[in-house]
Design goal:
about 575 residues, alpha+beta, Trna Endonuclease, Chain: A, domain 1, Phosphorylase Kinase, domain 1, Transferase(Phosphotransferase), domain 1, 7-stranded mixed β-sheet
Length: about 575
């Protein structure tokens, strides 16, 4: 049983499980410190658990994330939630900072190895790390004791026996750290879970502390240096506020993530962007999953939503500039939303943050004209990125370098693949705009009407003879007393000339056409799956199945008038 030497209150059940597991299962000579704050310059960072084993001091970050988690670069992509920065990279930085504090307190502690470990407590949590970047520093609850006991983790040049340094380590920690007394709080938002981050930004899931049981939000907490010179501070502030400025230019839309608030901590050492907590997962997961969870129609729905959101963004003079599968969220309802606006361009302005783009761009989705010069990003380069993402989603692989050399479309409609080819044209002028691409996609998905030449061929008159009026003449014979003027085209008065309540005849084929909303008449902000399409009228040129067809109203009135009066109507 490990000895707990102090700490604050655990923030959540995941942390409680780890602390209890170490207390009950670790060797008796291990020391445990939990929920502390470590100073770093003018700021602090939080540590969930610190364990002093027989050969190292290990900093532990606890994650309750469940399900499959894919590692791509410096981002983690969990199922059913938004991607976040790798906690491993941040934790290793915190470990180095802690080692620096220990060394300042006691010089001899330079020989002690400070390890870092992320513990996944979800019973079904699975880390998929193809590059092996983070997996060495991640374990689950069952493997925690074994990983902490592994002496081979100690790097060369450090001691593998911490017993002579135990007292010095505890004294140095007592002099450097302080107990964390409450969950972090930013304004009225109280943190429920730290998701991840890097040296620039940390991401949290939080609730409104003044409204118990309120829905969760996503906090992006940006660090800033309040003591920097004025010019670097101004540049840093422009980068930090960029996402909020871009999102406030965009009216609310179901396919674009919404910003709720933005504010600074008192000393401007941190800035907080409050976003909707989208219940979904990054599109990246659907591209890398062994078995796609999206049907062919659902994948086209995602492409349509992506273009719908992009058209809305462009219509409000905002350019995304960093569009990739990590910036497209697929919700639990199958809707797609655009996010990741940190480097967007919200219209003309005197400054730019494009110089930061080379650090974050995924070159697979960068247009050819922007590969070496990200500052040349335009709406056309956003369309190029959307074309690459859509091609990858529909075919399962990235497109070839030359659009004309791409393979057969597979299960996707030919018209859709041709659209994606033009969206990725190397000539920016030949790419359609986002709104134009959206309309073309909708037209390509629209069901084709039957061929008019064969629509009625060989179909007999479905109207039974015994349902016709016994006094009515055959339809192909003129009635008695008919004159030549009876067969002249009849003039139908416009609506303004008819009395209110008069029956309105409908020309053949017009019924239903006015009831069904045409996609090309809808704006970019209208989503086709939200449309309520009325059933077509039964007064068209095709008789309704099971009902006798009726003659046009005016023709029946004329026939009846002649039969009764013997006069012309």
């Amino acid at each position: 049983m490990a000895q707990i030497v102090g700490g604050g209150s655990p923030v959540n059940d995941a942390e409680r499980r780890v602390i209890a597991h170490l207390r009950d299962n670790a060797p008796d000579d291990w020391l445990l410190l939990h929920n502390i704050e470590v100073p770093r310059g003018d700021d602090t960072f939080e540590v969930d658990v610190i364990v002093l084993t027989g050969h190292s001091l290990c900093v532990i970050d606890v994650k309750g994330t469940r399900g499959r988690i894919e590692v791509a670069g410096t981002r983690w992509f969990p199922q059913r939630r938004e991607a976040f920065g790798s906690p491993v990279a941040k934790l290793r930085g915190n470990g180095r900072a802690l080692k620096g504090l220990l060394t300042q307190e006691r010089r001899e502690l330079d020989r002690v190895y400070v390890d870092s470990l992320v513990v996944l407590t979800g019973t079904d949590a699975e880390l998929v790390d193809p590059a092996g970047r983070d997996s060495r520093h991640v374990t689950d609850l069952a493997g925690l004791i074994g990983t902490l006991s592994d002496v081979s983790r100690v790097r060369r040049g450090h001691t593998t026996d911490t017993a002579p340094y135990g007292t010095a380590i505890i004294e140095a920690l007592n002099g450097s750290v302080r107990r964390s007394t409450a969950p972090p709080r930013f304004g009225s938002w109280e943190v429920e879970e730290q998701l991840g981050g890097d040296t620039r930004v940390t991401e949290y899931r939080a609730i409104n502390a003044t409204v118990p049981g309120s829905e969760t939000v996503l906090l992006r907490v940006y660090r800033a240096d309040p003591l920097a010179e004025e010019e670097p501070r101004a540049a840093e502030r422009r980068l930090i506020t960029n996402a909020y400025q871009a999102l406030t230019r965009i009216p609310p839309h179901p396919c674009v993530v919404r910003a709720r608030d933005f504010f600074a901590i008192d000393d401007e050492s941190r800035f907080v962007l409050v976003l909707d907590d989208v219940h979904g997962q990054a599109l990246h997961l659907h591209l890398t999953a062994p078995m796609s969870t999206l049907s062919a129609a659902a994948r086209l729905d995602v492409v349509e939503d992506m273009l719908l959101g992009l058209a809305h963004v462009h219509a409000n003079n905002v350019i995304h500039r960093a569009l990739s599968p990590a910036c497209v969220l697929v919700t639990e309802e199958g809707r797609a939303m655009l996010t990741g606006f940190d480097y967007a361009k919200p219209g003309p302005r005197a400054h730019t943050v494009a110089n930061e783009l080379p650090n974050v761009l995924d070159t697979h989705y960068a247009a050819p004209e922007c590969q070496a010069m990200p500052e040349r990003m335009t709406a056309a380069s956003d369309v190029y990125a959307a074309g690459v993402i859509a091609f990858q989603l529909l075919t399962g692989k990235l497109p070839p370098a030359t659009p004309d050399a791409e393979p057969a479309p597979g299960g996707a409609p030919v018209e859709v693949m041709d659209l994606l080819r033009r969206m990725r044209d190397h000539a920016t002028g030949k790419r359609p705009g986002a709104a134009e691409a959206l309309e073309e996609l909708r037209r390509a998905r629209r069901p084709r009407p039957p061929d008019p030449a064969t629509r009625h061929s060989g179909v007999p008159d479905p109207r039974p003879q015994d349902l016709r009026s016994p006094d009515a003449p055959p339809h192909d014979a003129p009635p008695h007393n008919a004159s030549a003027q009876d067969f002249r085209p009849q003039r139908i008065n416009p609506p303004s000339a008819r009395a209110l309540g008069d029956p309105v005849p409908e020309p053949p084929g017009a019924a239903g056409a006015a009831d069904v909303e045409r996609p090309e008449e809808r704006g970019p902000e209208h989503h086709p799956r939200d449309a309520r399409v009325q059933a077509p009228s039964q007064h068209g040129d095709e008789p309704h199945e099971g009902l006798p067809a009726q003659e046009p109203l005016f023709e029946r009135l004329r026939t009846r008038f002649r039969r009764i009066t013997g006069k012309q109507p």
